[in-house]
Specification:
It is a single chain. The longest helix has 36 residues. Helices cover 61% and strands 4% of the residues. The protein has a two-stranded antiparallel sheet with strand order 1-2. The protein is mainly alpha-helical.
Length: 107
């Protein structure tokens, strides 16, 4: 279901779709129990959110690289990988919350 607030203003947009794509969209909407326009709006919102997440990821990665370059402090990959494996076990209810890795000088 779209995340647009009920009272949010809307702007009309016309898309000319290839017939085959339109048929695929109609089938997907029907399978999801949605109107075609509702399904397309949700798909567009998901794509826009994914784009923003990708942009934020790159921004965060560049900031982390700058921090590493400036401070010489970082997290060894093996420790980060082990931390996330234990965190996944914790979230599944199979382990206690692991302590976060500690930054240290990286060569």
């Amino acid at each position: 279901m779209p995340k647009t607030a009920p009272n949010a203003s809307a702007t009309a947009c016309t898309l000319k779709l290839p017939a085959a794509l339109h048929q695929q969209i109609e089938a997907a909407a029907q399978a999801a129990g949605q109107e075609t326009a509702e399904w397309m709006l949700a798909a567009l919102q998901a794509a826009a959110e994914q784009h923003q997440l990708g942009h934020q990821f790159m921004h965060d990665a560049q900031a982390a690289q700058r921090h590493l370059s400036e401070s010489g402090q970082g997290y060894p990959w093996e420790e980060v990988r082990a931390y996330f494996a234990r965190l996944a076990q914790h979230r599944a209810g199979h382990a206690s919350l692991p302590p976060a890795p500690v930054a240290r000088p990286i060569d």
